[in-house]
Amino acid sequence: MNRTTLADFPVLAETLRKLHLVESAPFRGVDVLAVQHVHLSLVPLADALVAGGADPERMTIVSKSYSSRPAAVHALRERGIRVVDEPRMQDPRHSYERELARTVAGVVEDLVDGPGTTDPLLLIDEGSVATRAAATRPVALARARVVEQTTRGARWVEAAGLGIPVVDVARSDAKAELEAPLVARSMVVGLAAVLDGLGRRPRRAGLIGYGRMGNHLARLLAADVEVTVHDIGRGQSDLARRAGHRVADLAGVLRDCDLLVGSTGSGILREPDLVRLGYPTVLVNGASSDLEYELWPLRVPAAMIPGGDGDPRRPWANHYRVGAGEHVLVAGGFPVNFHGGGEPISALDFQLTRALMLAGAAQVMTRPPAGLEMLDPAVQDLVGAAYLGRAVREPAR
Ligand SMILES: NC(=O)c1ccc[n+]([C@@H]2O[C@H](COP(=O)([O-])OP(=O)(O)OC[C@H]3O[C@@H](n4cnc5c(N)ncnc54)[C@H](O)[C@@H]3O)[C@@H](O)[C@H]2O)c1
């Protein structure tokens, strides 16, 4: 992998070129902190940031442990970038988010400790983890410029009203239209492999969360099983109905389904809710981190199903029996598309998201907004077109 170059990733290369990032060097003199899935597609994004002026020695990447891939960690470290990669949890009986927040807070401390610098601190964020950490340190917040990749993170930033420059890539049309189908497909592929391994053949799926990704998930799942959708948004429920899906309240879904897929970005099920499940049910996270199922105290060695890696501190690599033992919490409640080895989406495809984040990072550095703003639609078109292999005109400089 270390031998690949930006030229192997035409969407990133074209974004770099069309936005004139080598000439304008928007990342020169900047500290960079990225909280990201460390997959092979992150390597050319790092290369693009360096081509745009970033100093590898001033870049820190904190990996999401559940999705981290050693080859990518290695390739980034070879480039002189600091990668904080915690391969195991300290205590799986609590949410992973707690540990990640602690790790990132430590990195922010390191970055703002010592002789004061006023250089910008570019946060390439997922789930607002780095932004939350910076928000507790005024000296970090004053320097922060943020590009956010997830809807959950963008919503948090919006509600927090920090008044710092933030570019929202998460809710861009380009991401919803081009990335969501890719991710949904990777979820369904991951799910099929897990069900085979477990020897389970569910017949009725309950999909919770019919958003940007959930609508694709519902359509793909419906090819194999009966699907019932539940979403707290009335508009989303109407959309699901119009797409031909059955719609129910949460109680109805829990009662009638034997496969539950959460795609909300928030908590949908707690331990006391397990008695509401009408059938032995396979519980699947179709979103991010381990937030959909607040069943963390049940991630204990005695509940592990043989066949995983057996390491109690790597809950994402194991499935757990929960309830009276008849339900299965897949991949410890982490996203099913990251379970197992390999990468859920090829680096060539996922460069789309990396290129949108590169463009967002350039936007927040070159013309920092007063608060939260969307990724420039003309730039979305440019990246989307590069991804789809079409030529477009460069946006006005
Ligand atoms: N694993 C991956 O590779 C990957 C990639 C992209 C996005 N994601 C994650 O997928 C999740 C969904 O993303 P999205 O872009 O579709 O978000 P979205 O905001 O478009 O959709 C979420 C939907 O869930 C609904 N919802 C929220 N809380 C609910 C609840 N308690 N009960 C029922 N419905 C509820 C909302 O009304 C909304 O319609 C996010 O967590 C995102 O970070 C994961």
Which descriptors would you attach to this protein?
alpha/beta, 397 residues, 14 helices, binds nicotinamide-adenine-dinucleotide, globular, 16 strands, single chain, seven-stranded mixed sheet
Can you walk me through this structure?
The chain is of the alpha/beta class. The chain has helices spanning 10-18, 21-24, 42-51, 70-78, 96-112, 129-135, 138-143, 151-160, 173-198, 214-221, 234-242, 250-256, 347-366, 377-388; strands at residues 31-36, 59-63, 82-84, 121-125, 144-148, 166-168, 204-208, 226-230, 246-247, 259-262, 269-270, 282-285, 293-294, 320-322, 327-329, 372-374. The strands form three sheets. A seven-stranded parallel sheet has the order 3-2-1-4-5-6-16, sandwiched between helices. α1 runs parallel beside α13 (347-366), α3 packs parallel to α13 and α5 (96-112) packs across α6. The protein is globular, with a radius of gyration of 21 Å. The two termini are 34 Å apart. The site of nicotinamide-adenine-dinucleotide has 25 residues, from α8. Residues 150-152, 183, 208-214, 230-233, 236, 263-266, 268, 287-288, 335, 337 line the site of nicotinamide-adenine-dinucleotide.
